[in-house]
Every structure is written in structure tokens, then in C-alpha cells.
Amino acid sequence: MRYIGNTRDNQREMLGVIGAGSLEDLLVRIPAKVRLARPLALPPAMAETDLVRHLRALAATNTDADHAVCFLGGGVYDHYTPVTIDHLISRGEFFTAYTPYQPEASQGTLRTIYEYQTMIAELTGMDVANASIYDGGSSLAEAALMAASVTGRAEIVLAAGVSPLHRRVVATYCEGPAVRLRDAAARDGVLDLDAARAAVGAKTAALVVQSPNFYGCLEDLAAAAEIAHAAGALLVVAADPVNLGVLQAPGRLGADIVVGEGQGLGVPLSYGGPNLGVFAAKQEFVRRMPGRLAGATVDLDGQRGFVLTLQTREQHIRREKATSNICTNVALCALMATIYLSLLGKQGLVRVGELASAKAHYAAERLGAVPGVSLAFGAPFFKEFTLRLPKAPERIVARLAKQKILAGVPLKAFDRRLADGLLVAVTEKRTKDEIDAYAEALARAVA
Amino acid sequence: MRYIGNTRDNQREMLGVIGAGSLEDLLVRIPAKVRLARPLALPPAMAETDLVRHLRALAATNTDADHAVCFLGGGVYDHYTPVTIDHLISRGEFFTAYTPYQPEASQGTLRTIYEYQTMIAELTGMDVANASIYDGGSSLAEAALMAASVTGRAEIVLAAGVSPLHRRVVATYCEGPAVRLRDAAARDGVLDLDAARAAVGAKTAALVVQSPNFYGCLEDLAAAAEIAHAAGALLVVAADPVNLGVLQAPGRLGADIVVGEGQGLGVPLSYGGPNLGVFAAKQEFVRRMPGRLAGATVDLDGQRGFVLTLQTREQHIRREKATSNICTNVALCALMATIYLSLLGKQGLVRVGELASAKAHYAAERLGAVPGVSLAFGAPFFKEFTLRLPKAPERIVARLAKQKILAGVPLKAFDRRLADGLLVAVTEKRTKDEIDAYAEALARAVA
Amino acid sequence: MAMPRYDKLVFEIGAPGRVGYSLPASDVPVEDPRAGIPDSYLRREAPALPEVSEFDVVRHYSRLSQLNYGVDTHFYPLGSCTMKYNPKLNETMARLPGFARLHPLTPPASAQGALGLMHDLAQMLGEIAGMDAVSLQPAAGAQGELAGVLMIRAFHRANGEKRTKVLVPDSAHGTNPASTALAGYQVVQLKSLANGDVDLADLEAHLAPDVAAFMITQPNTLGLFEQRILEITDLCHARGVQVYMDGANLNAILGITRPGDLGFDVCHFNLHKTFTTPHGGGGPGAGPVGVKSHLEPFLPAPVVVRRGEAYALDWKRPKSIGKLQAFWGNFGMLVRAYTYIRTMGPDGLREVSENAVLNANYIMARLAKDYDVAAPGPCMHECVLSARKQKKLGVTAMDIAKRLLDLGFYAPSTYFPLIVEEALMIEPTETESKETLDAFCDAMIQIAREAEQSPAVIHEAPVTTSVRRLDQTRAAREPDLRWAPRR
Amino acid sequence: MAMPRYDKLVFEIGAPGRVGYSLPASDVPVEDPRAGIPDSYLRREAPALPEVSEFDVVRHYSRLSQLNYGVDTHFYPLGSCTMKYNPKLNETMARLPGFARLHPLTPPASAQGALGLMHDLAQMLGEIAGMDAVSLQPAAGAQGELAGVLMIRAFHRANGEKRTKVLVPDSAHGTNPASTALAGYQVVQLKSLANGDVDLADLEAHLAPDVAAFMITQPNTLGLFEQRILEITDLCHARGVQVYMDGANLNAILGITRPGDLGFDVCHFNLHKTFTTPHGGGGPGAGPVGVKSHLEPFLPAPVVVRRGEAYALDWKRPKSIGKLQAFWGNFGMLVRAYTYIRTMGPDGLREVSENAVLNANYIMARLAKDYDVAAPGPCMHECVLSARKQKKLGVTAMDIAKRLLDLGFYAPSTYFPLIVEEALMIEPTETESKETLDAFCDAMIQIAREAEQSPAVIHEAPVTTSVRRLDQTRAAREPDLRWAPRR
Ligand SMILES: Cc1ncc(COP(=O)(O)O)c(C=O)c1O
Ligand SMILES: Cc1ncc(COP(=O)(O)O)c(C=O)c1O
User: Fold this and answer.
1) pTM of the entire predicted model
2) What is the ipTM, given to two decimal places?
3) Same domain, C283 and C410
4) Does ligand 1 come within 6 angstroms of the Cβ of C173?
């Protein structure tokens, strides 16, 4: 049988050593009454050749970003992913290890986590970053809870531009701890600072702002920081780290906690998961942070080495008083990001941002010039923007999908006021030809 | 610049240490007259994203065995290749090492070669196998030359069923050493033993027989051995090692040298190269064998270790008197074969052979029953057979290719008497449905 | 058995101006990509990231990897984690562009293969666990627990009940109390019997009307099957208490018995344990959660449904506890788990558990003379030993773990479960062969001998790893959590 | 820097009956797959292959790999072999199904992408070498040499000339005389000057009417550019002698000068050296051969040609020397080389050579004090040192090589070229950075010190590898070339 080590002979011998007559004998503690009396009703085993055929066929029914031109965003993006990343993370020593409980036999993983923490701290402008949270959504949720716990306040104010997909995750996580969510409205696509000022008060643990926000617009983080801090609240910023080669580090603008979806840092799209939850904070909060932390120390001989540290925050030690319930995280995605950021490096990340911004602005111009189509907002944007279409975006998207253009994300499902809205993302990978072809196809579709 | 280690600063510093003013200064020995005064006329550098797009597009114009049902054979086959092989050979320690000149830092490669030699010797029924030759064709050529050198005779008799593709390689290699080739005719697809007896004589270094032969038919190797040995000649057998789980080891039937194309042992089709030249011989010939050999020995502490051995046969020591000019071989393909044979193991290779044979015989029945189509030969076959078609095979093949069936190899180019011949290979990967669909498509095409 | 030494961080290699990326020049007529963006929003200096070549990166991470033990290279008997072989076929399948390059907001009509796979996987997991519905959304076991407890909470609330406590045995994994607390419950810790079993009388005493749920691990964290499980679940249900099964140990019971049939209302799966998705140095995993039908309305949204011939994401789940992650689940892991289940089939899965159990019992039998067994067997898929005998000789569970590293094995889980003194929790998994188990047992017996005769060699360990024992105290006292250049 | 120990062979793991494959049951109505095949053609017993699980295989070969140094993990300054970084992009591209899964006998109309790539690659190699036509068929450098010499032979024969000798310098790589002999020529060895240069007077003396060709390596095997190359090629041509360039050292001159412009008639390429295809532990490589137009009719058949918009295999080459391998060349390697050339472009290729030369000169400069330099520089892409000074202290080139292994480097080529006493041939390649070169030079200087002060540490070396120095004599005296079970 596949993937099973023992032969029948092995089994016999082992049973002999155990002193059991049969495999059944080992299961005596399981009452007969609860034993499954039939085989599981699952499809029969498939041989490798057949299974490959089956899965290829299944995969082929999906319209993926290799077989269509992808303008989809909304949190995850078709960014350039150097092929080298996958070659390196696939090395069994990384891929098939687990949480580095035995640091002496896990220095590879621990060093990469330490590198990752350093890079994320640098990009976000924060003092410390953890070893990863599941995704941008749960990372934001953890930040909200941490803000509540740090401030002893039970209300979170979310700017309207926070991703509705993430907002729902925050709501789920805030249910138990009874942390209340309030929304601060937007004006022309960005946080209405007056509304924010009105919403943030003495009960507010944190003001949460995402920039660029879900609709692609850039927020005034410095102003948001002022509002939050004036009320004794924290500023939590959700940012896409890929952008932070060009955009200012939120930490420099007053953020106390920075979270974000790190998928763009070399993590495959993979239909939305696994992703990479980025989490960074100011030094003063380090002992309240969720998640794993790797730290440098020395060994018996005084040599540098790395360990998991400050574990008294974690569930396996603090149990119900832990800062979070997270255990398995997304270490391998963090490794992808570490390798990505090493490859892109000081210059490359800037280049990615510049290219994405240039192409997005070109696309906005081309698409916005299609008769009947307009840009929804006047606020500055970066690599993503919202269009208003003269026909139902769902229809347009379906039509363009047939032409192998993934045109964008219809916004109706996320915001009823944007029933005519289409969210368009343009990464550095898109070419002028692709954008032009999209504009022409869109023109035909809305005509 | 991509893949170059030094920065401009590095270069400056290094030139300083060298005491050179510029990179130019290092090239003083190259006369100005022969310097290229212009840039190479090559297309400009392409970024990774663009290049991936370009190569994907190029690859997509080929009809490969993932996107069509492959009945092509003629020496290389669409056999089952466990995906595990590629994962393992891709490990940088194997992939980016070279010939194990420093055995202490190359035990991984040396052990796998020793394993490979053992497996090939076992399959072929020979005493020793070398660490690989380029491909089945050059392997056969080396065998012919070795036979000539061992026997001191200058004539090779090739059975008509020897692959014409390989025969041409033998001819090229025999040109220099002035070894003459003679052919022994076939009858009903297999070697005519009377013709062989007539052709083999006191000048014959070796009789070369391939089984299954190019047309798919199984040869009577024992009879061929008798004929060769009676004349004091060697019997060289070309065999596909994939078949040797079911078919008798040529060594047991009297072969003195066994060669073959080992591509089926887990090596990708890759448009015909790199392939894997298998080469095995009797112990008495070991010091006349071409190619590398790994052997077991002990280290200073008496521990087992492996080295390249009997190197006095090789070009780097014996120079013009070497047994062969081979240096770089196909070690990585040999590693693929080693992993393949480990995975398939004692039972698996038998199973592959049984399935291929069953499916080939089913296909022969189905295709042979198509009106106007017949089996060309009455001789027993294994996984490949020759059909005669009522219409030009080239046309049929072109037509079926459009239906994503790679129907077989038209034989006209190889044998004018088989202008209506189509060589059809059926591996264990082909399903009944695929064979049935082929039969139906063929019926329509010849109707 | 020594490991290579390599002591660099990526920040300590490279040179200013060196690059490892490859990007084309801009092909659009936009002169200043920063135009239109307020100055104060822009970064002034490029971030201090490495400046290394692609080759620098390849060699650096190749060498770093060599400082790890992984399942591919070493026996990794880490209890409770099911460190089984991760089939390479899963990897090849998960990397098919149709899966790996699919954007989550692709119109469902253009993602039918992915949705279909998810739908079928949820069905299969439901059958395996005897549960009526499964959500694939949770990203790991702990998030599955959170989802499960939140569903229980929503259920009670929908029934107009205000229950505030959840009972969790003291043998439980830390995520159980942590998830429960996160879901807003007060955690009541129950004392387990010495073998990890539930103390039924004590349970009964605690089953007050304010108890919302009882959460246990089955088989328990000592590796034993909770024999009186039906009494337990019946008792709970009689008091209106929902019963949650931590499914981390599911590898013990595939095709043998099912959480649903044991009376559990909820149970999570760890696809990175039972279903061979790789552990990746600490994740990603996937923690689907299965429920009985009364909890189905509360499942995280959206749910993948089949409508006629088409698959869709059903968002209209008014009673849903909401979302746990931004998208639909750790799809990449789902492809791997699906591939695995289709590879094994029903008989194969049952053999998985039988052999997992056999292997654990074999280790227990071979080591019972030299180590104290935490609970008399037969155990299920893992066995827990206590090094209390060795402790008296001055050799702790930690010491034994370190010595194992020198002998070429990763270490068992240590000091878990908390109720066992000097615990060594050994989970061999079914993918390991008798030869490997024998080599491991030989090493363990050798260590027991050494503890008696030459403990110094144990206290010195590890000496073959790239670093020796590390100063944990210093790491926690003076946290050094990011690299800084010496300025 | 120590390596892990692992001493098994695959035959020594596993257990009877264990399997690592996965094949479906037969779906065709054929009862006995052996029916119709004579009994005597059939194997009676299954071959004695391993009986191991997939996991056994993965762990075994993962661990075996760890016993190797490779370019990905170690500086590998093996002279004459150009052990440069092998870009991962090449690998991903070569594995595209349209390339990796393409059968060589696919009708050309269905293989246009592959043929087009080959056509364009041949053109690009022609431009790089200044040659008029290129065959991609040879499987490695040595086969390229054979092809080249056979073409020369065919050329002379077509001109009605019977020339029987080929001149080869004593500094040449062993394949040069071996290939020449294989092509049916008598090899005449010429003495090189001390720096590896051709002794022109001696050459002239040897250029008898029976000489068919002169075969040299440019830059020569001492790493020096043959300065009087035009005199040499002119002289040869004046005597009707063809000149062959062994292109193994092409990495030194890309975009700087071209074999064709130097007067060579033939030259081979080693794609596994200059063009980044991986060395794979000893191959596969690819050894295309380029020729001037007068030799074009003799190229191996078939030749990839362009006919209008379509590409085809041209078999109608009546003067061809024939085939060298069964199919068209090592296509997988061609895809990698093509990817590389398109990545680098013309400027990039020139920078490759400039930096390869810079790196070699840097090493030579840094080591010139401690080791004898075989020939005064500047050198091209590699430098040859002599350990003759060290030899007097009892430390040989071999000893130095072994000590380098302990210090974390693979070794240079040793004892080649034969004309240099205690040769250490160091080729750093352009992909290595100054930091790595410095670390290597530091190690070499340390060894020079050790040779003077503490030679024992060198003679003991290597001690960090999985085995220590191996008994080569025993291996050759009692050849043990295949494993056998202890019966
Ligand atoms: C018994 C038990 N429960 C729960 C978990 C938590 O699962 P995860 O790490 O996937 O969040 C673990 C994981 O180690 C476990 O062993
Ligand atoms: C100078 C020189 N010539 C020829 C060759 C032979 O090339 P190959 O090994 O590709 O056959 C080599 C290879 O090592 C070499 O270094």
C-alpha cells in the first residue's frame, strides 16, 4: 500500500515483539459499538498515472493567470515571482521540517525567520515583526485584539476603505472578546477625516486604516495617526508590503501596529491560500504580540545561534491567557517572502513599485478613456483603482474572461453603492500590449 | 547584470589588487586585430517575465505527450515517470556537482553510480556496467568498437532489426577505426538466422542484435549467440532495460556486451535528448570498456567509500590510447534511472512490462482489425509493433495529430520497403479508452 | 552525522549595488511613476534590504537548509504533529498552473475545477469523520478550534441559551484553552486520570448548566483511545453540552471509527498532519472543521455548494459565524490533501491508521524496559514515555532529546502533555518502516544505558549540530529580534 | 563545516515485498501479457532490484545528496570545467511540458517550437563563435571533437587528399588526442612552451603534408590567450592543415573575440560550461560544433533548417559524416542554453567573460606570493598554479585539494595540464563574487602557511567529509564494481 512503511512480514514481526496476535488486538480500547463496520465510502485508490490525468483535467477547467491576463486584485496580486523561490523552498530540509522546537537541528528555519522579521520590520518601519500569521485578514484581526488588550479598551474603528474581506474576519475574531467594531465613513474613496475624528474616542482601542485601501486609494496615514493618538488610541495600518519600496513605511507615519497581506512577496496565488499574514509592532508591545518570534542568542561555545523566544506569550505555555491561539502559522510563505525580498533587494522592490504604479496609471488613463467608463474616485492611487462601468460589471467580466482577460473584481458584492464598480489591479507584470488589448476589449464590451 | 557576481565597486577594488587599470588591461594578450569591434549580433537581454512568456509560447506550439496521446516509440517511449525522480535529482548537491574527481566530497554521486552499475548489471545479466554513455546509439557504437578491439577483428554484422537511427551512429563511429559494417537480412520482421550464419565469419568481431528490434519484434537471442560464438565473434545485444523485468536478461542468452537506450527508466522525452546510453559487459572485458566506473574501496579509517576506478582506460590518463573519448557522460540521467529502478523495484518493473505488453497486444488487435490495416509481421512482439496502412502513413499521422493522437512513426524514411508501415508503441500509460479512441480515429482516417 | 557549519545571515553577504532580480524596463508612456502621489506618502530612501545576486541567494538558502533536519532526511518522531512523509506527487499537483496560478476572485464560472475539488474534498472529509458538513476555511488546527467553538456559541445563542464556560482537560494541547478563551469562554480545566482519560465522575460534577462545551482530544494526548467516549458524549448531550473533538490525532482512527459516530458535534482536521500536507518549518497547514447538521447553519461563510452541474460559493449564510480568512481556505493545502485521499482510497486510509498504531505500539514495547511508559497500552498512534527514571540520574527529557539529535534523529515532543513528568511523546507515523523504528529504539536504549553509565555524553549533546545548546534565557531576557548592521 | 554521515546503499535498505511505485490495474481484456512470447525469451525470476517504499527512496537519495559538494552549496573552482551558477529559470523552462514531454519523432509540423528554438540557438552560437554553421547534435565536448575531426577528414577526402596525422599539443585535454585517434588519425604530440603557448618553430617543423589538422585550446589550458594565433592559423592553412579549436574555454572570450575570426575552421562549444547547463554529477552536457562554410556540407545529419515560415529536419546531406546520436541533440540542454543566451543578451555575455577573466586574475594576484604561478599573466578565465614549492615541504597538489575540502571549498583541477608540475588549475567563473574569492584565497594562503608550519593538518585532511582519503590502489587492484548481497 502506498506511503506505508511496513510489509506484511514487518507487521507480523512487530506484533510478535509487542505480544499482540493481530492489528485488531491493538485496537481493543475502541468499543465495538463505535467501530465503523464498513469501509469508508470514498472513491477507490487511484494510481499515480490516473490521478495525474484526473487532476490535470480538473486544473485545466480553471482560468488561471498563466492562461489569461490577470487584472484581479482585491488583496492578492499577480506579482512577479522569481522561479528561484520555489526551487529553494522545495528543499526537503525546509519543506518537511516543523516549528523549530529543537533549535540545534533547526538553525536553517530559525535563521530565515530572523531574516524575515528583520525585513518586515524594515519595510513597515516597525521595531519588531513576528514569524507570520495565517493571512492579511487574521493578521488584522489579531492586531485589533492586541490593540484592545494593550489599551484596555473595547472598540475598534475601521476606516471604510478596509478590505471588506478582512473586515469580516475581524468581526469573527472580535465576537468572543466582545470587542465592538465601528466604521468611519469615506469621502471620494478615502477616509473622511472628520468622520474619523467623530468616531474615535475614549473607548477606542485603535483606528484601523488600510492604504492603499480596498478601492485602490491611498490614505493619509499621518492624519489618521494624529486622530488616533489624540484619543489615546493606537493606529493600526494595513499595508501591502510589496508597495513599501515606494510608499512610505507606515511606522514613519505614526502607525503602532502594521499588518498586511504578504502574498505579493513571492507567494503563489493558489486560489487565495495559503497567504502570508504580516504583523509588526512597536518594541513596547512585543510581549503582547501574537505569534512566534525568533531571536538571536549564543550557544555553549559562545557562537551565535537562534531560538524561538518570548514563548511565555504563546498558547503552549500560557494556555488560555496566551496573546493568541496561533500555533501552526505560515512559516514557509514567510520563507518565500524572505527569499523574494533577498532577490528583489534594496533596488528591486523599488523597481516593482515604480513599474506597477506606472502601468496602473497608464491603465487607468486608457480604461478611463473608454466611452462610458470613468474612474470612480479622485484620490491618488497606486497599483489598483476603481472604475465605474456603464453596464453590469459581472457581465463585462464574464465576457472578457472568454477572451482570456480577467478584467477585475466587480464591487457590488462588497459595497452596494458600487454596483457599477470594477476594481482593477495592474502589477509590474502587465505589459502595455496587454493593457491596450484590455482597453479595446472593454470598449467593445461596453459599446 | 544578471548572474554576474561582481559590482562595479568590486571590479575596481579587484583591479587595484591585480594592479591593472581596467578590464581591458587584462586582455592585452589578445591582438587588436582579432578583437570583435562590435557587440555580438544577438537579441537584447530579456527580463525573466518576458522570457518566460516567450518560452511558454514557443513550448505551446509543440504537440507534447501531456497534450496528446502518445503512441510514438522507435527507441524512446512515453513510460510512467514517477514525479519523485525530478524532485530528487533537482537537489543542488546532485544537480550542480560534476564528475566526482574529489571522491571525499562526492560520495553522493559515487554511491548512486555504484548503485546504477549494480542495477544495470542485474537487469542485463552482465557482470559489470559502466556509469553511462550518451545514448543508445553511441553506446552501441562504443560496443562495436570495443568488440573490434577485444577480438582484433574489423567487421561488425548488424541484424536488420537494429534501429536505423542507431545504425547510423555506429557507422559514424566506425569510420575512423575502419571497422566495416555488414548487414544480416530479416525474414518476417526478425533476423534471418541463415543469413546471419552466412554473414558472420572469421573476420566478424561481433554480431549485433536488437530485441525487441526496431520494428517491435522479439529476436531469438540464444540462436544469435550460437551463431556469433561459433565464429569466435561476440554477441552484442541492444535491449531496452525497461523491458527486462519481463524479458530474459540478454546475458542469460549468451550476450557478451549489452547496450541500450535507457530513456524509459525515468528520463524525460525532451525531444530526444539527453538520453541514457546503457553499457554492460562480461567481467573479462572490464579493462577494455569505455566510460566511467565507480568502485567500492575503504578510507583511511577502514570505512567503506567509493571512487572512480580503472581510470587507466580513460582519455585523461591514456589519451590517444584510451578505450573511448568519452568524458562528460549522462550521470544525471543515470541517477534518474537509479531512482526509477529503486521506486519500481523488483515488482514494479515486472508490472510495467506486463501492462505494456498487455496493452500493446490489445492495441495490435484493435488496430489490426481496422479494415485495410494489418500487422506487418507475424513474429512475437512486446510493446511495439508495425502496422501496414492502406493510405500513406505520413498523412494519417498528420491527420490524427490534429485530433491529439500521436499515432506512430511512419517507416518510409527508415526502410523503403515499409513505405506503408507505421510503427506503433504502447506503454503501460496508455488506457483502453485511449487505444479504442485511436482505433476509431484510425478507422475513420483510412476509410 | 555532523552537520555543515555556515554562520551567515543574508544581510551579511552581498555588496552594495548587487541585484538578484530581473525586471523589464517600463513599456508605458508614464514618466514619473510617483506623479500624483503626495510626497509625504512616499518613501524617501530605499529600504535596507539585502543586495545580493541570485546566486548568492541560492547558495545562502541552500546552505541554511542544510542546518535543518527534515522528514525527508531524518526520522522526526515529534509527538502530536504526525510528521509523516509528504508525497512529492502532491507537490507536483499543487503546482499545476490551473491551481497555483488561480486568483481567488476569478469568477466562479472560470474556477469550476477548484470549486469542484473543494466541494469533493469537504464531502470526503465529512465521510471520514462522520460529520454532516465541513468547512475548509480554517487555516490551521487552532483556527479550526476557534471556528468550532464559535459555532457552538452561536448555536447556544440561537437557542437562547447563555452558557459561559467550556471544560478542557489539563492534558489538552495549549491551543484548546487558547481558542476557547478567544471565543469568549471561560476555560475550566478538568483533571485527567493518569492515563489521560477523562475522569467521568469529575466531568459529571462539572457539567453545570453554564457549560457550553466539552473539548477533548481523541485519542487523547497520551495516545490512548478514550474508551468511555459514548458515555461521555451522552452525558454531555444530556446536559445540553456540545462536545468538541480536537482532531489532531485523527491519524489513529481513519476508517476504524469516526468522530461523528462517537457522538462529537464538532471536530477539526489538521491536513498538515493526517493528510500529508507538508509542515514547511511551521506552516502553512489547513484546519477544516466538520460539524453535525445542527451546527451547519453556523459554518464560516462562504460555503462551496453544488448547484446542478455547477459549483458556487454560497455567501447567503445568515447564521454564519463569519469569515476566518480573507478567502476560501488554504487551497494549496487542499489540493495536496485531495491528492492524498484519492491516492490512498478507503482501504489505504484504514491501513494508514493500523500501521500508525502498530508502529507506536512497537516503539512502546521495545522501550518499555528502559523508560517508564506514561500509560499502559495498547496505545494508538503515539506513545508517551516518561524520563523520570533517567531524571533521577540527572538526565532530563530535554537532555535525551539533545542526545537524539547527535544520534541522527529529530527529537520527540518533550514536556507535553503537561500531566506527564518528563514527557517524551513519540509519534512514528505509518510512513516509517520497522528498520527506522529499530534504529531509533536502539538509540533510545543506548541513551538509557548512557544515562546510567556515562551521562556526560548526554549532557554534552548535541555536538554534531551546527550549534550547541543555546542560551534560551538570554534570548528572552535581552530579546534580539532583528538584525542590525554594526554602525 | 562537517558533512552528515550516511553509509547505506539502496540495496541495504527496504524489506521484501515493499514497493515504491503506483500503477493501475490493467484495463484491457488481455489475460496473459506473456502469451505469444516464447518461454525462452522470458525472464524466469524478477530482477533483484531494491524493495523500498517511495519514502525510503526520498530519504535515501536526499541523504546521499548531502554527501556531495555542489555549486549550489560550495565554491567549485574546478579548472577547465566552468562550474558557474546554473540559473533556476533554465530549469523551469526546460521542464515546460511542450519541451520536456515532446517525443523526438513527433511530426515536425507538430514540433515547430522545438525546431525553431534549435534553429535560433544554432544561429546564435554561430554568431558567438564567428562560425558559418553549427550542429547541435553532439552530446558533449568530446563528441563535438569527434564530429569536428571527422568533418575535417571528410573534407580532405573530398578534396582527394590523404592526410593521416593530427597535431595535438602536450598541454591538451585528454579528449583531444582520444577523439582524434577515434576519428582514425595518428596523433602527433607537440611540445608546448612553458606557458602553454604553441612553439611556432616546432609547429612549422611538424606541418608535413600528411598532417590533416592542428587542434588547440584557446585560451590554452594554462589559461593564457594564444597571442600568435593568427600566425598559427595562417601557417596551418598555408600547408592545407585545418585548425580545430577546443572551445572548452570559450567562457573567456564571449563578445571579445571569436574563434572564426581567429582563423579556426572548426570549434566545439560546451553548453554545460559556457552556457550554464548543469553538470549533473558528470553530465549530461551538450557539445555543439561550429564550422566555416567549407565544412558545412559535412555536418552531422539531420540539420535543422528554415523553409519559409516552417522549420524542418534536413536529412538530405549526402556529404554528412552521419549521425552522432540517435536523435537531434541534447535538446533539454539546448533549451537551457537558449534561455541563458536570451537572458544575457550581447552585452551580458561580454560582461560574463570580462568578469570571468577579472576573477581569475584576482585569484592569481592574491596567491602569487604563496604559490608558483605556472605562467605569468594576465591570464584569461582561469589560472594555473604549481605547488612545487609546497611539494618540497612534502605537501602535494592533491594534499592541498583535500585540505580545501575541509575548509569548505571544492578543489581546483589537479595535475592538469600535464605540463605543469603539481598543477592546481583554478577557474572561478564570473558568477562568483569577490567575497567568495577572498574566502578561497584566504584558505589557500592558510594552507601555504600550514605547509610550512603544520603540514600534519594537511596530510590528515579531509576530516570533515563523510569519508576520509580513499584507497584508490585497492579500488583498481580488486575492482568491486557492483553490490552483492552477503549470501
Ligand atoms: C493536539 C493538538 N491540538 C491542536 C493543535 C493545533 O493545530 P495547529 O498547529 O494546526 O493550529 C495541535 C498542533 O500542534 C495539536 O497537536
Ligand atoms: C579543455 C577541455 N576539452 C575538452 C573537454 C571535453 O568535454 P566534455 O567533457 O564535454 O566531453 C573538456 C572537459 O572537461 C575540457 O576541459
Assistant:
1) 0.98
2) 0.98
3) no
4) yes
